[in-house]
Amino acid sequence: MSLFSMFGALEIGLIFSLVALGVFISFRLLRFPDLTVDGSFPLGGAVGALCISNGMDPFLATALAAFAGASAGVVTAILNVHLKIMDLLASILMMTALYSINLRIMGKPNIPLIMEPTVFTLLEPSWLIDYIARPVILIVVVLLAKLALDAYFSTRQGLAIRATGSNPRMARSQGINTGAMVILGMAISNGLVGLAGALFAQSQGGADISMGIGTIVIGLAAVIVGESILPSRRLFLLTLAVILGAIVYRFFIALALNSDFIGLQAQDLNLVTAVLVTLALVIPLLKQRFARGKRV
Amino acid sequence: MTTFTKKALLSLSALTLAMSASFGALAESVKSVAVTAIVEHPALDSVRDGVLATLNEAGYEEGKNLKWQYQSAQGNTGTAAQIARKFIGDQPDAIVAIATPSAQAAVAGTKRIPIIFSAVTDPVEGQLTPSWEASGTNVTGVSDVLELGKQMELIKQIVPEAKRVGMVYNPGEANSVAVVTALKKILADYNLTLVEAAAPRSVDVGSAARSLVGKVDVIYTNTDNNVVSAYEALVKVGNDMNIPLIASDTDSVKRGAIAALGVNYMDLGKQTGRIVLRILEGENPGDIKPQTSENIQLFVNLSAAEKQGVTLSQELIDSAAEIIR
């Protein structure tokens, strides 16, 4: 694997680690099976790309994209909390609606950003090669997001969100407004995903309506891979594990792309990725069994 | 975790070793061409095969003096981005990028390695090149844009009494939306109106076509990926309901359209391959003007015409490049 391809995997992995953090908040902390992500990722890309291509400051555009993502999360949560639609169905409805909404926002299926300024071109120091600079910038962004989440979920309000996820009845009896907490948690979750979408569009040359396909699958895989390579119950380590999971997943794809010399072909890519992820999940289990076997 | 990381690192380095060994074994004069496509379907695959055929004809042989790589993102733009990064990292002599998202990912990744796009309808709208002139950058290629006026004339020739043209397309595909926008501008000149039916997924093609029954006199389709993937669904509706089908790619005629005045994607690939050859021989991609297909062919399908209730004029049949019976 070349250095360039490794930095590419790192860059895309870091962007998707924001998605994974979002998915971690909804699926793990809130226990809300949220598929909105498949729509809020391209929504972030769409808003970001539209604003930038109309001459808006890329930083402001990226912030707006995160805000748009958060709004999508709020709508899903309201459908569930106030309109009593089952959580999974509410998110499917929102995801479906967002496809059309994203097309409306962009006005066409693809907005290129190849010749526009982006947060990356603005932040890149001239002495650093761009394909190294982008992951470096992203590491800072992802770490900031992680630390902010760690800090927030240790505050009173953050703990209330976690309590809502782990035991809503108990949380309500403690005087927590669980409905509001679900809405807030979903806003944070999808805000992160929208941010990721905007960053992805800026690093990959544009937003495309098809960029959301499979986002939830990748996010969930990252969460689970992360949990299996770094099992922990502490939030600080859990968020780190999720970020690592997203990056490892991307390295698996990069590996799969380089597997042509053993006779695998382009159409085997998804299969190879699935096998590698399965291995990552099974190895800790095998290790455990092996260790137990030795003791006897 | 640590042992796992070690294992992963070990297998990684083993892989890298194996790869570099295989590179090292090849001679100095080997040229490398890497092809990235957003998805696999007959037309896009034909482009890839066309490029390879041209390279083979020119004496480049896989495993001898050509290192040929092909990857498809299987519809996922994240994967497309990663394929672009992998190829750029491998530093091939040329990257062939098939369809808009794959081409954008490649162009966003490098300003140095020559990129030849193909099967992109509008490279200027997609910001692959600043204009239709020679770009001066590392990007050139072949567009599959069709002159829509000729398409409408074909419809008038086959179904002279047609007033309403139905079109099934994916509103999420840049190429298709570009065609619809352009069609709306010129349809009035041909005394036609447009009835749209959206097929956001390929499984929606059949129901989109059925929604047009009774509302249209003819169904025209562009090279929309969803529609081309599921063209048989359209053919079924056309045959059952006697609605003539006019396509834009010659492959669809073999699958049951009455006619298509279209790009032969194999030829498009060969045309792309000729640009690749010029670049392999040292020409600068920035000096080569982006091209459009030089080979537009008329294919007609006589049995489809019969099933869909149309009689083709002898004049039209005579002008066809290929007649399917």
UniProtKB/TrEMBL annotation, chain A:
Where does this one sit in the cell? Cell inner membrane
Pfam families (UniProt xref): BPD_transp_2 (PF02653)
Q: Which residues form a coiled coil?
A: none
Q: Which UniProt keyword terms apply here?
A: Cell membrane, Membrane, Transmembrane, Transmembrane helix
> Which residues are listed as membrane-spanning?
12-30, 59-81, 88-107, 127-149, 179-201, 207-226, 235-257, 269-286
Statement: the UniProt record of this protein carries the keyword 4Fe-4S: no
Membrane topology, from the record: Multi-pass membrane protein
Q: Which InterPro entries match?
A: ABC_transp_permease
Signal peptide region: none
In which family does this protein belong, per the annotation? Belongs to the binding-protein-dependent transport system permease family. AraH/RbsC subfamily.
This chain belongs to the protein called: ABC transporter permease
TrEMBL record, chain B:
Pfam families (alphabetical):
ABC_sub_bind
UniProt keyword terms in alphabetical order: Signal
Listed InterPro entries:
ABC_transpt-TYRBP-like (IPR007487), Peripla_BP_I (IPR028082)
The question of whether Lipid metabolism is a record keyword is answered with no
Gene3D superfamilies in the cross-refs: 3.40.50.2300
Q: Which residues form the signal peptide?
A: 1-27
- Per its UniProt entry, which superkingdom is the organism in? Bacteria
Supply the name of the protein: ABC transporter substrate-binding protein
